[in-house]
Amino acid sequence: MVIPSVCQIASTVIRLIEPTVMLEELASALFDTALQVVVKDRSANATNPDTSREESQQRAMTNFYMTYNLIIHLTPILPALILARLGDRGWRKAPIVVPLCGYLLSRIILLLVVLLHLPLKVMFGAATIFGLSGGYCAFWPGVMTLVSLSSTTTERSKVIMRVEVLYGAAGIVGSLVSGHLFQLYSSTLGQGTILLIVSVVLLSLSLLQSIFLLQVKQISREAEDNCHLLSQASSNVPAEAPVVKNMVNVVLLLVAAILYGTSVGGAVEVLGSFVMKEPLSWNAMQVGYGNAAGCSIFLTSFLGVILFRRCINDVGLILIGMVSFASGMYFMTFVTATYMFYLARLLTLFALIPMPTIRSLLSQQVPASSCGRTLTVLQLCLTFAGMAYIPAFTKIYQGTLNWLPGFVFLLSSILAVLGMIPVSIVGYRSPQKQPYERIQGD
Questions:
Q1: Which among 31, 102, 340, 351 is least surrounded, fewest beta carbons within 10 Å?
Q2: pTM score > 0.70 for this model?
Q3: Which pLDDT value is given to residue 233?
Q4: What is the C-alpha to C-alpha distance for residues 9 and 5, in angstroms, rounded to an integer?
């Protein structure tokens, strides 16, 4: 009796979205470490007049990432919109499967760069392929849409955070082993080859699972129009009233997301180069451990949601997360040793809470039939913001290398604080149910 039960559970699990997300993030965590170390190695011989060797290397690395990330932000715009529309018309797998194809091809290209000693600029082509497939801009809204449409309004924040925490756990595991895998090599396979092969295999499994095993709950148009998608037949909670689009709250939440996304994205843009320079000067294993520390906020943020959601509403959760990130980035401004880096990361325990909670609030401001498009519009707003903050933060970092390399983190902290203003206005305009009222529906 036990064996059939285990098989039945396993059969159910592999048809959910969680395995797709976890396999993708495991592969991406390996890829991120590989790319970071490869870029450092290829930039080691960069020279610029009137600058030191380390500063020249830092400029070469940040210039590469600036171009690479701009391509990733620019190219997915139209494909993501097309995939979102296909998703809202019933092709729910399209925003997940198509980007995964781009993920896989871009990882294969980095593997070829390492194996065949191709120029690093080939990765700009990989970024273009990744973007034209929709990339993260289409993939994550597609995942969030499936999660949102399969959960009730009262449970949506918790369900979204569950997916986020599994995503983070996969990132931690992948990051912890990535540095060790990078150093595995033989006489025929150079450093990083085995790491990238494993990444390609994991992404292939994720793609195959999403195509052949992932089950999507089919929802009728009538049910969507009446917003009964998110109610369970067995629930004793009264049916939810049809949702009317609240454009003021939508705009305020988009502004908050842009400010906070700029804060986080700008800091992350230069953090990878920052830890490679003196006095930190990280190697491949340290890069992996540092990335794992970054992924750990998925777990701590999830625990934060469980801890705080019974005491405060979603707006309060967002504010806690923004304060957490702002304080961590302020401390990061003055980091001069590895242990200080981890102390700064410790302060960002709840930094992941704001974005999924904002997505949850956004999905509650529009009818279910517009959910996919609204979440994709959010992602596109973050994409357009990235086209501005990526070069801005890069140039500011390069200009402050000699007197305060961490100045960009101070700027990031200020933007996170500014993002709290529109969120507070949303909370004032739309007081949410008291925590005890929401618990009754748990």
A1: 340
A2: yes
A3: 33
A4: 6
Confidence bin at 425 (pLDDT 50/70/90):
very high
| Cα gap 269→350, rounded to integer Å | 20
The three-state DSSP-derived secondary structure of the chain is: CHHHHHHHHHHHHCCCHHHHHHHHHHHHHHHHHHHHHHHHHHCCCCCCCCCCHHHHHHHHHHHHHHHHHHHHHHCCHHHHHHHHHHHHCCCCCHHHHHHHHHHHHHHHHHHHHHHHCCCCCHHHHHHHHHHHCCHHHHHHHHHHHHHHHCCCCCCHHHHHHHHHHHHHHHHHHHHHHHHHHHCCCCCCCCCCHHHHHHHHHHHHHHHHHHHHCCCCCCCCHHHHHCCCCCCCCCCCCCCCCCCCCCHHHHHHHHHHHHHHHHHHHHHHHHHHHHCCCCCCCCCHHHHHHHHHHHHHHHHHHHHHHHHHCCCCCHHHHHHHHHHHHHHHHHHHCCCCCHHHHHHHHHHCCCCCCHHHHHHHHHHCCCCHHHHHHHHHHHHHHHHHHHHHHHHHHHHHHHHCCCCCCCHHHHHHHHHHHHCHHHHHHHHHHCCCCCHHHHHCCC
- Mean local confidence (pLDDT), 237-250: 64
Q: Which residues of 343-374 are buried (b: 16+ CB within 10 A; e: fewer)?
A: ebbebbbbbbbbbbbbbbbbbbbbbbbbbbbb
Question: How many whole angstroms separate alpha carbon 250 and alpha carbon 359?
Answer: 10
| pLDDT at 96 (0 to 100) | 94
Q: What is the dihedral angle through the alpha carbons of 255, 165, 62, 183, rounded to the nearest 10 degrees?
A: 180
Task: Give the model's pLDDT for residue 442.
Answer: 36
pLDDT at 224 over 50: no
